[in-house]
Design goal:
TIM Barrel, Enolase-like, domain 1
């Protein structure tokens, strides 16, 4: 799989002349972060970061990432993403703490390149397979009773008209503890009963179990025809993940916390995962995440990316999924962020019958409200 993961992704042939990065600005308003990139010729791109993480991580952006890219040719983005990894020994920071700031910059550069080429940013990276994305309604009512959780899940699903949902089980990295006790085994049959056999249902334990308990819970999920089991054991328990997968028929999903391309390679080659879930912020952007998706495709596995719950993550997810030949049937949706004002002329960005049209305008395909941008100040 290694040659597949190192193959070229960004279409440099779309650009006949260098696109020299002249300036990079990190902008902040309250806990919102924007990245604005300008080329020497005046082209501009902007991204909305994962604000939940960037509020702690912005010094890595300004000290470790921003200086490296000034004066570089944006057409060489794919190579630059490899070089930044060793610049100032950044590999020592490898994990969400490094990849979220880098993804923030990558998205701004892709937005700029898309505007230069008059293409959606996704089509800088691949051909379109999906013009609209079917979503599953995600939620997090862990800590509430099974009965209360069901009512809240119903409200969410009916609001988005989704034909699929994902619910939380276990206690989150909890060493087999449930939260509250007994909730999981009560909730699993209630979810299936509430939504019927036609609803696609996923379960996520966020690494709550050891091998034996994961297998026990997995067999209950199988009884109620749950469609995948996400992170049955802690995310960095690679051998244990495979041992769970080997003992269950329910597809095992995972990867939202995975920082390493080579560890994804191991999980794919050794059938530790049936469904890969790189988070396009946590994993460092679309280009790195597409390498994971390509490896999964080679082994006839699906890619269902995880998205972070802040900013405009759902828009980046939609562009990413639109170019996946091995996209899963439904993709994560946590609601539309109403706090970031923008206009989109090519999609209503509504969940119509559980599907959302992918924007087709240049770059990300939206225009942020200039007054909203003006509220931000430069982060030095």
């Amino acid at each position: 799989l290694l040659p597949i993961s190192t193959g070229e992704i960004l279409r440099e042939d779309l650009f006949s002349d260098p696109v020299i990065i002249h300036s990079i600005e990190l902008l902040r308003y309250e806990d919102n972060f924007l990245c604005r990139v300008r080329s020497k010729d005046g082209a501009e791109g902007i991204s909305v970061s994962n604000n939940m993480q960037m509020v702690s991580l912005y010094p890595i952006f300004t000290r470790r990432i921003q200086p490296f890219f000034i004066g570089k040719d944006a057409r060489k983005l794919e190579t630059l993403l490899e070089e930044i990894y060793v610049y100032q020994s950044n590999y020592k920071l490898q994990n969400l703490a490094f990849w979220v700031p880098l993804a923030t910059l990558e998205f701004a550069i892709l937005d700029m390149l898309g505007k230069i080429a008059s293409l959606p940013l996704a089509n800088l990276l691949g051909e379109t397979y999906h013009k609209s994305i079917a979503v599953y309604q995600a939620n997090n009512y862990r800590g509430k009773s099974a009965e209360e959780s069901i009512e809240l899940i119903k409200k969410d699903v009916y609001g988005s008209n989704a034909k699929a949902l994902k619910f939380k089980i276990g206690g989150r990295m909890s060493n087999n503890k449930d939260y509250p006790p007994g909730r999981t085994e009560q909730l699993i049959p209630l979810v299936r009963k509430a939504f019927g056999d036609d609803m696609t249902i996923y379960a996520d334990s966020n690494g709550s179990y050891d091998i034996n308990e994961a297998v026990r819970i997995g067999k209950i999920l199988e009884t109620y025809k749950i469609d995948f089991f996400e992170e049955p054991v802690p995310f960095d328990w690679y051998d244990e993940t495979k041992k769970v997968a080997d003992q269950l028929t329910i597809p095992i999903a995972g990867g939202e916390q995975e920082p390493s391309l080579h560890q994804f390679k191991w999980l794919i080659e050794n059938d530790g995962l049936d469904i890969v879930q790189p988070d396009i912020f946590y994993f460092g952007g679309m280009i790195r995440s597409l390498k994971v998706a390509r490896m999964a495709h080679e082994k006839n596995k699906l890619c269902v990316p995880h998205i972070s719950g802040s900013g405009l993550g759902y828009l980046y997810m939609m562009h990413f999924v639109s170019i996946l030949p091995n996209a899963g049937p439904y993709h994560e949706f946590k609601g539309f962020n109403q706090e970031i004002p923008f206009e989109c002329s090519t999609s209503k960005l509504e969940s119509k019958d559980g599907t959302i049209e992918v924007p087709t305008g240049p770059g990300l395909g939206i225009e942020l409200d200039p007054e909203f941008i003006a509220k931000h100040h430069l982060v030095e």
